[in-house]
Structure formats: C-alpha cells, structure tokens
Amino acid sequence: MTDAPKHLAANPRLSTWVEVGADGVVRLRVGKVELGQGILTALTQLAADELDVDPGQVRMLAASTAGPDEGPTAGSMSVADSGAAVRQVCAHVRALFVAAAATRLDVPAETLLVRDGVIRQRGGARSTSYAELAGDVDLDRDVDATVPTKAADELSFTGDSLPRVDLPDKVAGLPRFIQDLALPGQLWGRVVRPPSPAAVLTDADEEAVRQAPGVVAVVRDGSFLGVVADDELAADRAAESLRAAARWHESATLPDEDDLSSYLRDGPVTTFSVDECGDLEAAPPVVRRLAATYSRPFLAHASMSPSCGMARWDDGSVHVWSHSQGIFGLRRATAQALGLDEARVSVEHVEGAGAYGHNAADDAAFDAVLLARAVPGRPVHVRWSRQDELTWSPFGSPMSIELRAGIDARGRLASWQADVWSQGHTSRPGYAGTPGLLAATHLEHPHPFPAPVDPPPERGSGSTRNAVPGYRVPVRRVRGHRRQEVALRSSSLRTLGAYMNVFAIESLVDEVAHAVGQDPLEFRLTHLDDARARAVLQAAADRAGWVDRPRDGDTGLGIGYARYKARGAYCAVVAEVEAVSDVRVRRLTLAVDVGRIVNPDGVRNQIEGGAVQSTSWTLKERVRFDRTRITSLDWETYPILRFSETPEVDVVLLDRPDLPSVGSGEAAQGPTAAAIGNAVAAVLGVRVRDLPITADRVIEALGA
Predict the structure, then answer these.
(1) Model pLDDT for residues 544-578, shown as the tens digit of each residue
(2) What is the DSSP secondary-structure string of 297-351?
C-alpha cells in the first residue's frame, strides 16, 4: 500500500468505499463531507470516469463512521486526497468487473470495452454489465494500488461543469439540511448558555420549568443546563424560563479588544522557527529598510444558519447526526467525554447550512447527546440560536505580524524577516488529548479547553500558514509566536493564518515596490521564478486592465498574489476600490491555477465565494467584547457584507490537465484582502494595516 493514495492506507477495503447494486447503480461512500463546496459532485465525476459509467449511475452516500475515515474535511484537500483515493478505488473496481465479464463472455479481458456500465467486446455482439455481474464480483478485498488510473486524455467527465448533485433539493427548498431533519418520535432540545465565557452556574429553579406544558426533561450537570420538550415552541419557552431562573457568577477575564497585539505578546508564548535561509548578518548590502506591523481581530464564522445536532440513545449506545467536518473526531471526542467505548458511538453526516471551518457543529451535536441521554429511545434535535452561534462558536484567532524588508542597490528584496503572533488555530474535537467540546467544559466533572494548537507543517501549519513569502529573497527569517493561555477559544476558520499572513506580506511587497519606484506587478514578476505564479499574476492583470488603470481620482486598483500553503492553488487578485465617504470594492478579478480542473463551475463558485467572504472580513468583520462578555450578538453588532455591497467578481481559470488537482476553497482569501488593502493605498495615498479597513481606520490613517 506504499504507492496508494494516503487515505487508502488506513481504509484499504474496497467494500468500505463502493457497492455496486443489481440495478447497476454505484453507491460510493467517502470520508469527506459536503459543506456546500460541491465536493460530492467533483467526486461523482472522478468515479464516473474511472468506472466508465454515466454520472447519473453514481450515488454519493452521506459520510458516516461506518465508512472510510479520511479525517476532517478541511484545508482544501478533498479533491487532492479523497479524489485520488476514489480514482484508485474505482479503477480497481472497474478492473474486477472487466475480469468477471471476460470470464462470463469467455473472451480476453483486453478486448473488452466499458461504456455506461455495459461491458462488450470490440466488434462483438455479446455483452454484460455491472448490474448483471454485481453478484459475481467480491469487493470485500483490499485495493490494488498497481491498477493504473486513467490518463488525462481518457477522462470524459473530468473538466466539465457537471450540474451540482446537491443543488436541486436546495433550490426547491426540500428538506436536505440537518436543520430540517425529522425522525420518528423526535423531541426538541435547547441549551441555556452561560452569559459569559467564565461564568459558573450557582442556582437554577428547575422544578418550575419541569411543570411547564410540553416539557419532557430538564437536564442540569454542573454549569450545563438544558431542556427537552415535545415541540420547538415548548422548548424555546422552557429555555427562556430556565434562563430567567438561572443565577451565574461571572468574572472579567477577557482582554482589551482594542489592544489585541499586546494581548498576544503578553503571557506565556511558544516561539518557533518557520524558515531560516542565509545569514542576516552577512546579507547582501542593504541600502534601504522598510518595516511595518499588521493585525486582525477575532473573527466569527458567521455561518448562514446556526448550528444544529441530533442524537438518540439506545441500550447504552448513541447515534449522532451532525454537520461536523470530522465525524470520526466527533465520535472519539464523544466517547472520551462520556467514558464510552468508541464502538458504542456512531455518527452520520447531514449537511448543514453554512460552514467555513470548525464552527459549532460538533458542540451542537454533543449538546444533543447530553440531552438525549435523559430520554432514551427518543431522538433529540438541538438548534442553536444566532446569539449562541456568534458568541460560543470557536473564533478565528487574532493575529499581529511584524515584517522587515531589506532592499539592495538594484531595488530588489535582499532580506526578509517576519514575526507572527497568534493563538493556535485549531481546537477540533480530540485535540491536545481532550474532547474539545463546549458542553464538556461545563459539566460537573469538566474537560477544560487547553490552549488551541496548530496543525503540523506537513498539514500546512496554522498561525504561520503562508508566512514565508513566495518571492525570491536570498536571506529570510520567519518565526512564529503562539500564546499558550487564551481568554477565548479559537479554532480553524477558513485559511487559518494564511489570510492574514498573505495580507501582510503582499502589503509590504507593495510598499517596497512603491518605495523603489517600480510598478507593483512588475516588481512581483521580477521576484518570481515559478512560471505558474507569473501566469496567474499576468492573467489577472490583463483581464483587469492593470496597464491602463486610473492613477488618480476616487477609484484605484490593487493587486495581491499567493500560492495557498506554498503547495496548493495559485491565485492572483486585482481589486477595484472606490473610496469616497466609505471604502467600497466595486470589482474583483481573479486568476486561479488549481492544476487539473475537475469541475470548472465548481472551482469558479469556490473562488467567487472565498473572494466575497474575504471582502467581508477585510472591510467589516470584528468580534466585539468588553472585559466580561462577548457583545457582538447579532447581525447589527457583527455586521457582514450585504448583497448590495457585494462586488462584481470575474474569475479566470488556468487549466493544467496533466498536473494533479489541488483544492480551490481557500485560495482567494489572502490575495483578495491584500488586493483590497493595496487598492485603498493606491486611491488614498495612505495604508491601513489593521483590519478591518473601516471608514474610521481610514480617517485615522489620513490624520496620521
């Protein structure tokens, strides 16, 4: 198995992945989950190509702990990793069916052709099919990694914009999301959250609530407080009554939201080296130095719909329905928190309405587990409120970045130093040996949250993801500094540290270009050896009209570039920004290289969505709090980009059919933020280095 795609090493059994029915339908179960990114459609195309069936013959089953464990769906790795596994699995399955057909038809296997699941001999009249052979082919065997997958010119569906398999239900408003899930005997649950992160429950009049109409159970365990009722309205009313009856002890434990850079530098910090190249003391002669500090606040996931979960206990075992990104991690964490054998916990994925990393899906599922334990045999459906979502979901970590660039006599980058301060960027279930589930921290025998951690470098790092510039700089020193005692939980928010690192790097690169009197595009091209990087920059610039851009007035263009995780998708962005009474992004032009494009429309959708989300982060979003409580509770106090403010987005795709596919979902965020920041500087002549770029921050920069 050493040559097999990595996810097959842990999940080698073909039957774990594929079932071929007597109806000719291929049922495929993967470990990656649909989060709205279109992965089930892309994997359908890859499977159909390797099996030589019509995509309509492939049914993508929901991920569950009965299927392959591919880890969390994260890091824009689903096509690269799960896609590679699916291709190898399906190539082997096709080979087995062709061998079975050769035996049945008594002809050499190499003379057989497969089309739409029908297997026939070249020039012959006799045929058989996957449907007819389904009972003859045993898939309960390990995958053979030596079976070749198809070459690029043999693929029929890969590269086409196959319609999304998940969209018809969503467009028609049919029940597809976990928020819509309805099971026989279902009850509804609500959890009464503490008023602040450090609050401890001291008293609650539970009896009065137990007597309320429709209430089935009131659950209290330490500071965990919840209700189960016959219907949603009764659950909501009971939760409000319980909230009014609860008494809490609160403590002021939160930092100064206006000085997060100092917060990140204070207290215990782990410092680590990311990149050391050359000797700073013996660097080429530097004639000029530029230095700057950049920062971002805590960011919320701000998902379209609040998180939700469902659970049912039967004979000491629990079945969980969740929109978690990592169903196996949720199973392990649930078992750990409750002292159960993992075999007694099963998790089934159901799509949720919105996910941009590790949101509260796992927390809502564990809420349901705790409430359902009080009513064995009955499924309990738990839905969070918008306030719950904006105040209790894991946040994206704040960051502060110090950059220093040395310039030589030719106007080239001679040295580069970076120091990145942050909290850790992941606290997914099971991290640091703890369940990592919100309600588990509130139990009478709690499992507290350790400080969040970062993924290892081989998985893209966290705080220092994309902290090393992709440009040619002979001498570099990049270090990370991760705070070890945190006041607010942070975890994986789309791109982790890459969004902020790219914003900072590309901002300073622009500043250096202007300082030496060079065009920002030409300066970047001068420092790039990678032909694919140069191609996306030139393509974005050409499409946006970079050469003929306005040099004065109220509108300007800015550019940004990065290769995600230094090994993923290449992305360049040109932002057209208008700055009069406010900052408004009018147009974004993006050029992207993701290697082989499986579904062009899917890639374009991911890039568009990432660019718009980045625009919202860059111009508006910021978690607000005082020294005790989170105060950004709704869309008024945590504003996001409105439809009326959404820029026009134009995406240029550079297909590389002979190169491996990489993910697209997180490629656009950093370059988009950088392009916006650089465009603001081009229009106004001043630079805002602390995000978000609000009117107040622009006025402050103009005044300085």
Answers:
(1) 999 998 888 899 999 999 999 999 999 999 999 99
(2) --B----SS--EEEEEEETTEEEEEE--S-HHHHHHHHHHHHT--GGGEEEEE--
Give the bridge partners for 201, in sequence order.
Answer: 248
Cα 108 to chain centroid, rounded: 47
What region, left, alpha or beta, does residue 635 occupy, with left being phi > 0 and alpha being psi -120 to 50 degrees? Answer: alpha
Rounded to two decimals, the pTM is 0.95
Q: What is the pLDDT of residues 222-269, one digit of tens each?
A: 999 999 999 999 999 999 999 999 999 999 999 999 999 999 999 899
Phi, psi at residue 145, to the nearest 5°?
A: -75, -5
Rounded distance, CA 235 to CA 687, Å?
Answer: 50
Number of Cβ within a 10 Å radius of residue 244: 12
* pLDDT tens, position by position, 608-666: 999 999 999 999 999 999 999 999 999 999 999 999 999 999 999 999 999 999 989 89
Which token pair is 687? 């630079």
Residue 270 identity (one-letter amino acid): T
CA distance 196 to 459: 33
Helix (H, G, I), strand (E, B) or coil at 160: coil
Whose tokens are 């850790």? That residue is 424
- Asked if residue 477 lies in contact with residue 280, where contact means CB atoms within 8 angstroms, the answer is yes
Backbone angles phi, psi at 294, to 5 degrees: -125, 150
- What are phi and psi for residue 124, nearest 5 degrees? -100, 165
Query: How is residue 353 written in tokens?
Result: 């309405």
In the predicted model, what is the mean pLDDT of the chain?
A: 95
> Cα–Cα distance between 140 and 94 in angstroms, integer?
14
Asked whether the beta carbons of 465 and 497 are under 8 A apart, the reply is yes
Q: Is 386 within 8 Å of 306 (Cβ atoms)?
A: yes
Q: Quickly count helices (H) and strands (E) in the chain.
A: 18, 24
Q: Whole-angstrom Cα distance, residue 32 to residue 69? A: 8
CA distance 41 to 47: 10
Share of the chain above pLDDT 70, in %: 99
N-term to C-term CA, the chain = 61
Exposure of 218 by Cβ count < 10 A (0-12 exposed, 13-18 middle, 19+ buried)?
A: buried
Q: How many CB atoms lie within 10 A of CB 110?
A: 8
Residue type, 697: R
CA angle (141 as vertex; 139, 145 as ends), nearest 5 = 105
| Dihedral-angle region of residue 438 (phi above 0 means left; psi in -120 to 50 means alpha; beta otherwise) | alpha
Q: How confident is the model at residue 64 (pLDDT cuts 50, 70, 90)?
A: very high
Alpha carbon separation from 294 to 219, 260, 399, 412 (Å, rounded): 46, 12, 8, 22
Tens digit of each residue's pLDDT (9 = 90 or more) over 401-421: 999 999 999 999 999 999 999
Residue 609, CB half-sphere, CA atoms under 13 Å: how many? 19
Nearest alpha carbon to residue 248 among 190, 195, 207, 192: 195
The b-or-e profile of 579-601 (16+ CB within 10 A means b, else e) is beeebbbebbbbbbbbbbbbbbb
What is the secondary structure of 253-296 as a DSSP string?
----TT-HHHHHHSS-EEEEEEEEES-GGGPSP-SEEEEEEEEE
Pick from 553, 597, 263: nearest CA to 400: 263
